[in-house]
Amino acid sequence: MEARPPCVATVTLDQPPLNLMDGVLLPPLRGLVNRVRHDADVRVVVFDSADPEFFSVHGDMRYLTDPEALPAAPGRR
């Protein structure tokens, strides 16, 4: 995460080859949400992709049908 004035955090998805929203990528994203939720210095989070060809191919639908399958975010209680 990179913080830029005024109160903007930029997050670059970089999980080759697809930036798949899965059990590898989602826990750090949930950790990010936990960190910025109460950070008064961050007002906006902008997501981009390290691959200029795409943002994210898709998500693992298993997490919609079975939310318990999603690993906990680091630092989550």
Helices and strands in order:
Blueprint: E1 2-4, E2 8-13, H1 26-36, E3 44-49, H2 62-65
Parallel strand pairs: 2-3
Antiparallel strand pairs: 1-2
Report the helical percentage.
10-25%
Contiguous runs where pLDDT drops below 50 for at least 5 residues: none
Summing up helix and strand content along with how strands pair, one would put the structural category as: alpha+beta
Number of strands: 3
Distance between the termini: 22 Å
The SSE order reads: EEHEH
Q: Strands of the biggest beta sheet: in what spatial order? A: 1-2-3
| Arithmetic mean pLDDT | 80
**Major sheet details:** 3 strands, mixed
Radius of gyration: 13 Å
General shape: flat
Q: How many H/I helices?
A: 2
Q: Into which percentage range does the β-strand content fall?
A: 15-25%
Highlighted features:
single chain; 77 residues; alpha+beta; 3-stranded mixed β-sheet; 2 helices; 19% strand; flat
Description:
The protein has a 3-stranded mixed beta sheet, with no helix packed on it. It is 19% helix and 19% strand. The protein contains 2 helices and 3 strands. The mean pLDDT is 80. The protein starts with a strand and ends in a 12-residue tail after the last helix. It is flat. It has helices at residues 26-36, 62-65, and strands at 2-4, 8-13, 44-49. Helix 1 (26-36) links the parallel strand 2 and strand 3. The protein is α+β, with helices and mostly antiparallel strands and 77 residues long.
Please give a quick description of this structure.
The protein is of the alpha+beta class and 77 residues long. The protein has helices at 26-36, 62-65, and strands at residues 2-4, 8-13, 44-49. The protein has a 3-stranded mixed β-sheet, with no helix packed on it.
